[in-house]
Amino acid sequence: MAWRMPAETAPHDRIWMAFPREGEVMGDSSAAREATYDAWTTVAHAILPFEPVTMVVDPSERERARRMLSADIDIVEAPLDDFWMRDFGPTFVIDDATGERGGVDWIFNAWGQGADCENDALIAARILDELGLARVPSLLVNEGGGIHVDGEGTVLVTETVQLDPDRNPWATKERVEAELARTLGVETAIWLPRGLTRDYDELGTRGHVDIVATFASPGRVLVHAQHDPAHPDHAVMPAIHDALRAATDARGRSLELIELPAPAQLRDEEGFVDYSYVNHLVVNGGVIACGFGDDAADARARDILRDAYGREVVTVDAREIFARGGGIHCITQQQPRAGLATLAGGDAAGAGDR
């Protein structure tokens, strides 16, 4: 098989998510737990007008999920440790020659942190079995939030994720690139030096690219911008921007950078925030964008995303998700539509495609 990961802008069959379950990540109060359930549920319901949603639910949360979720959301029961579907779920791929779909089953070791993840590590295989799709095994420790592809042979990655010694202690760029070529069909990897500052805290991923930069379309990259010098990411972002400006993609193009400025809030009770509008989800005919309670900044981000994608943009308050260690993109995973792998970029799923 010659597998290829379509761009997120290509048409989807559905979005996969995982329903929250009791545990440390949810917080130490009933209010925090309820806020977590509400945040995940709100995202799922925001996606529904654009495309179907399937929610993986731990058996312990069966009754709550059925009570909180729309009857239009499909439920698949499976044991869970956590609820970051982007990272432990399958990365869906397509064979262009046959139209067959599959999913890459990366090794998942809880972002290199060694936390309990035995159930989550099996979710990709469970979903692929549920769908009857081919499983593409990989010996690379990787997460879906650690990659972004343009659908035309280019992938964005960060040196502190795939080369993390707690993930892949013997990895080199050449070995990683060879495995990404085999599993995702990419020819060119653009290596960014790191991620955002908060992402290196206890609940962080150590540099996921999906909070830093993403392809709006081939040759065009939406990139986080922190213009306030009081925030440590103000000093972090220039090197990331420089790496993108110096890069060329698989088709030999220089990249057009489209800045997504951060909201005004700099800190929460834990320290400097990593609020980023880059961590959005592209859906059929729309974009589900993160909101941060900053009306002016949220509106500016909507305008930028609308112009970049030519799609309707819906903002969902993502502060409770970020408080748990991620964003809207981190809790979702797109399943590409069958038979449309050869359509380049995002042109196949315009504003009217549902």
SSE map:
Elements: E1 3-4, E2 12-18, H1 30-47, E3 53-57, H2 62-68, E4 74-77, H3 85-88, E5 91-95, E6 101-107, H4 123-131, E7 134-141, E8 148-149, E9 154-158, H5 159-162, H6 173-184, E10 188-192, E11 213-217, E12 220-225, H7 233-246, E13 256-261, E14 267-268, E15 271-272, E16 281-283, E17 286-291, H8 295-309, E18 312-317, H9 319-324, E19 333-336
Parallel strand pairs: 2-3, 3-4, 6-7, 9-10, 12-13, 17-18
Antiparallel strand pairs: 1-5, 2-19, 5-6, 8-9, 11-12, 14-15, 16-17
Descriptive report:
The chain has 354 residues and is of the alpha/beta class. It has a single domain, classed as L-arginine/glycine Amidinotransferase, Chain A, CATH 3.75.10.10. It contains nine helices and 19 strands. The protein has helices at 30-47, 62-68, 85-88, 123-131, 159-162, 173-184, 233-246, 295-309, 319-324; strands at residues 3-4, 12-18, 53-57, 74-77, 91-95, 101-107, 134-141, 148-149, 154-158, 188-192, 213-217, 220-225, 256-261, 267-268, 271-272, 281-283, 286-291, 312-317, 333-336. The strands form six sheets. The protein has a four-stranded mixed sheet, sandwiched between helices. The longest helix has 18 residues, at 30-47. It is globular and about 50 Å long.
